[in-house]
Design a protein that fits this description.
By secondary structure, the chain is mostly helical. The protein has a domain at 43-88. It contains four helices and no strands. It is flat, with a radius of gyration of 24 Å. The mean pLDDT is 85.
């Protein structure tokens, strides 16, 4: 560690980068107005949902968490009945 750690000090604290998606969206938000009616809100919701669900990492992570929670919920739902049957 004493050999490697001094070399890490030569790296910058932050790497220079282009504007991120969040920064670009924040700039667009400044120009756009907030949705006033239900139809405007629905159109924006559809647009945001399409953008969100087009990201494969998000979709796979969501599916993984859903399947995991479904398994855990089933386990904890029936474990008392299993103990009751097993230990009388």
């Amino acid at each position: 560690m004493t050999i490697v750690s001094p070399w890490l000090g030569f790296f910058p604290e932050r790497l220079p980068a282009d504007k991120t998606d969040a920064q670009k969206m924040a700039e667009e938000r400044k120009v756009e107005k907030e949705p006033q009616t239900a139809s405007e809100w629905t159109k924006e919701l559809v647009k945001v949902s399409k953008r969100l669900f087009s990201r494969p990492i998000f979709v796979y992570n969501l599916a993984s968490a859903t399947f995991f929670l479904l398994g855990v919920v089933g386990y904890f739902t029936f474990i008392p009945k299993y103990f009751e049957y097993h230990f009388r």
